[in-house]
Amino acid sequence: MSDLPTTGERFERFAATIARLRAPDGCPWDVGQTHMSISRNMIEEAYEAVDAIEAGDAVGLCEELGDMLLQVVFHTQMAAEAGEFTLDEVIEGINDKMVRRHPHVFGDDEAFEAARFSPERIAQIKAAQTAGQVLDLWDQIKLSEKEEKAARKAAATAPPEAAATASSEATATAPATATQHEATQSLLDDVPRSLPALMQAQDISRKAVSAGFEWERVDDIWRQVELEVEEFKAEDTGSDQAAEEFGDVLFTLVNVARREGIDAEVALRNACHKFRRRWAIMEQYAYNEGKPIEAFPVKQQEAWWQASKEHE
């Protein structure tokens, strides 16, 4: 029998290390942190992990994933100290969510009925095979979860005489009134506003599509792009309205990418990487001439740009 610690034992030891750092006699820096003070670290560590993935650096990815795990455990330790939630709740919650959102893998008839899916929807879920079908399924289940939460919230806050019927009313087929809509969580509320804009646009449009808000054909989206471009051109250069219209152009282009199965964030990152490579080649040409690249006219820079493309 192996004397090596199990994965669970290693994890518990790591959690104990973080708890020790946060103890009154622990590290002054760690003790002084709050959720807000280190919130940016969560984003930075995620980007560093992505950099390692894109570089094909498995050793670096291993380290960066450790840094991300540090953020998870550190925030959870602070929450536990405040009596908000524990590490056990975090782990149990995400495991339950993964099982709940993969009924095509884990689900049985009881689970489907509990989610109030129609027989047609259940058949569609069980038949989910492609990544696209599963992603659509994920969005539909999240929407169902939101409706369930809204029903529970309504039941909890309703007067005693109305509480008994709140849940059944939440499942009625009649359109919601403005008051009812205000009391429920928006479909887009779980798209983090701190995400990079392209990623936000992708997630927002994908969720809108899950509710049926979609162009019939990709050509229709391209026509919308053309309309947005014309609206942008009609505005005064540098004006706030021009900036707003340009945002509409970008948002609509993201929908083209989504419809074509392209990750707009990855596509733009790759374009940035490509530009960096070609720019480095151009700088090398300038260095060989004994001057910085900004010392050369645009015509020469363009010639080197074309040469860098051939070099690649």
Tell me briefly what this model is:
With 312 residues, the protein is mainly α. It has 16 helices and no strands.
Walk me through the topology.
Blueprint: H1 7-21, H2 28-31, H3 39-54, H4 58-81, H5 87-100, H6 103-106, H7 109-114, H8 119-126, H9 131-157, H10 160-170, H11 178-183, H12 197-210, H13 218-233, H14 240-259, H15 264-288, H16 298-311
Helix pairs in contact: 3-4, 9-10, 12-14, 13-14, 15-16
Our count of helices gives: 16
What class would the helix/strand composition place it in?
A: mainly alpha
Number of DSSP-assigned strands:
0
Number of domain modules: 4
Q: Predict the CATH topology of the largest domain.
A: Helix Hairpins
Give me the CATH superfamily of the largest domain. Answer: MazG-like
What's the CATH first level of the largest domain? Answer: Mainly Alpha
